[in-house]
């Protein structure tokens, strides 16, 4: 891997990251395909059309349904889903702690029941690395615990210390797996995850500790899980300066366009979130003039595209009235078109962000973008 900062504008950084599956231009929004598909009937050909650089899939979900060993037999996730660009796999840690109703956390890992059929599963650092190695993703995330943002200080401190120990085990196991001759992707990269809920001092100390491990990249996890936006920005202000600037920085599970714009200003360059696809499946679409709900009756006779001048497949060919009709008729095409539009909007916004940083006008761009999206769209 080679990660190189090309331009800086304040703390915002414009970089490129060369990987075995292609070069990533950052800041970048990773389109979320949890089970190796974007919800909303979006194909990998569609992803290429709308400018997707990185697809994100989930270790836990692919392990409990279909299975990573089956995917390995197909030559890994890239071949299985016909995607030739980078893939990041989340470690499964967040899902273990958010979906598993019954779980027991021990030093070796977590014992829990599958949310699909209730069967008992054990996952620890080594198991997460082995699953991700079977998937052959470009970037693997370390296995961590994501404590609730409002958990008490003593619990968070102990949890973070265990996450640090787990990270060392992840690094050792990844090195072992990458050295095997039959590994799907022997160039698989490992990102560590900073935790600490909303306690700045715990976050900063953890950032310093994991920075010593010289990993391929660093993520900030455990945000956008109940705390306010202001608290999230406060934590980013405190933590990002203590992560290596010469490595990619990833804010996990974030977020709204406004969240992304603010986080870029704080030195973050990787993002992912289900918002664009989830909102699209419910007829909510993003525009530069605010969000629209296409089920509103005022769009019944509206001949305009979702947004004038947008180059997405929906806006190039269909009217608001037609897409509203599809939702009213419960036709899947309506969801598909809105998801395509929203993902295109996010990918295009990241392109604009990169351009603004290159031209040292990011502050002006951010202010104009935020002001437009806060408005009332017609």
From TrEMBL:
Q: Name the catalytic site residues.
A: 90 (proton acceptor), 272 (nucleophile)
Instruction: Give the catalysed reaction(s), semicolon-separated.
Output: 7-aminomethyl-7-carbaguanine + guanosine(34) in tRNA = 7-aminomethyl-7-carbaguanosine(34) in tRNA + guanine
Job of this protein: Catalyzes the base-exchange of a guanine (G) residue with the queuine precursor 7-aminomethyl-7-deazaguanine (PreQ1) at position 34 (anticodon wobble position) in tRNAs with GU(N) anticodons (tRNA-Asp, -Asn, -His and -Tyr). Catalysis occurs through a double-displacement mechanism. The nucleophile active site attacks the C1' of nucleotide 34 to detach the guanine base from the RNA, forming a covalent enzyme-RNA intermediate. The proton acceptor active site deprotonates the incoming PreQ1, allowing a nucleophilic attack on the C1' of the ribose to form the product.
The gene that this protein is the product of is: tgt
Which pathway is this protein engaged in?
tRNA modification; tRNA-queuosine biosynthesis
Named cofactor requirement(s): Zn(2+)
> Which molecular function terms from Gene Ontology are attached?
metal ion binding; tRNA-guanosine(34) queuine transglycosylase activity
Family statement: Belongs to the queuine tRNA-ribosyltransferase family.
Annotated tRNA-guanine(15) transglycosylase-like domain residues: 11-371
Please identify the protein, giving its name as recorded: Queuine tRNA-ribosyltransferase
GO aspect biological process, one term:
tRNA queuosine(34) biosynthetic process
What GO cellular component entries does it have?
A: cytosol
Q: Which residues bind substrate?
A: 90-94, 144, 195, 222
How cofactor binds (record note)? Binds 1 zinc ion per subunit.
For the ligand (Zn(2+)), the binding residues are 310, 312, 315, 341
Domain of life assignment: Bacteria
For the keyword Cell membrane, the answer is: no
Assigned EC number: 2.4.2.29
Give the keywords, sorted.
Glycosyltransferase, Metal-binding, Queuosine biosynthesis, Transferase, tRNA processing, Zinc
**Is Cytoplasm set as a keyword in this record?**
no
- In this record, what's one Pfam family? TGT
Residue ranges of the region described as RNA binding: 253-259
The subunit structure is: Homodimer. Within each dimer, one monomer is responsible for RNA recognition and catalysis, while the other monomer binds to the replacement base PreQ1.
